[in-house]
Design a protein that fits this description.
With 256 residues, the protein is α/β, with parallel strands linked by helices. It contains nine helices and eight strands. Helix content is 45%, strand content 14%. β7, α4 and β8 form a beta-alpha-beta unit. α8 runs antiparallel to α9.
């Protein structure tokens, strides 16, 4: 059975721990530089916690770096692994090179999902994207990923960068547009609930059909009069006005 050390206790670490506990996998240790941020996990799962790098277990098979992107390289510099051990980080947009100081076996296992510790996904449906430095690291990373999910996709770094870009577009940017819509409703004393059916329609349709074929609205039909009215309504929010015009221009160009 694979022995795992988890470094960090944020959203992704908590998701991995939940899934690994369900599989009764041996997580031999948690590391976090602040004990108070990790004590609850240590107690909940009965896993020893350390706060110093020199106390990190040296006999595990896999070392999972579930920490902030900007902290990975610094922590990796403090951890030297054997040729039979593998270091894995979970940052979708970051290179394997961040782990180079640990040794020859490095990998990425990135959950292509917005993980929130207050609402962790329970099913084995979260896609995991895997990249590795060599065949041994790939085998270890994919074996670990198989403990978490039934949906595993090996990719190159270039492919992972484009996947991360796409995820930002469909998740982060879309959520920002929803937040703008909610704020417009609030400013005009309108219930946001009125928009929920069309939001649900949009996402349900996009899950079953090609989004390109689903495009509607004034931009795709070149309804300049309606778009001019919308731009006027957004004058009190110039950043939203610019966003409206940029997206409308993009739609027009895509369908011209």
């Amino acid at each position: 059975m694979m022995k795992i050390v988890i470094l960090g206790t944020g959203n992704v670490a908590r998701f991995f721990l939940q899934q690994l506990a369900a599989q009764k996998v041996d997580v031999v240790q948690l590391y976090n530089h602040r004990a108070e941020s990790a004590q609850d996990l240590s107690i909940q799962y009965g896993i020893p916690l350390v706060t110093e790098t020199n106390a990190i277990n040296t006999d595990a098979d896999l070392y999972l770096f579930c920490i902030k992107d900007q902290a990975i390289a610094a922590l990796a510099a403090d951890i030297k692994l054997k040729p039979t051990q593998t270091a894995v980080h979970c940052a979708g947009s970051q290179s394997l090179d961040l782990l180079a100081a640990t040794g020859i076996n490095t990998a990425v296992v990135w959950p292509l999902y917005s993980i929130n510790k207050n609402k962790l996904p329970q099913e084995r449906t979260v896609p995991l994207v895997v990249e590795a430095s060599n065949n041994f690291a790939a085998q270890q990373a994919e074996a670990f990923a198989a403990l978490i999910s039934d949906h595993i996709t090996p990719v190159s770094f270039a492919q992972r960068q484009y996947l991360h870009l796409s995820a930002v577009m469909v998740n982060n940017f879309t959520n920002h547009l929803l937040a703008i819509g909610a704020q417009i409703c609030a400013e005009q004393s309108l219930p946001y609930d009125l928009l929920k059916p069309i939001i649900a329609q949009t996402f349900i349709s996009a899950m079953t059909q090609d989004p390109y074929s689903l495009q509607t609205g004034p931009a795709v039909r070149n309804d300049v009069r309606t778009m001019d009215v919308h731009v006027q309504l957004l004058q009190t929010h110039p950043e939203w006005e610019s966003l409206y015009q940029a997206i409308s221009n993009s739609i027009e160009k895509m369908y011209s």
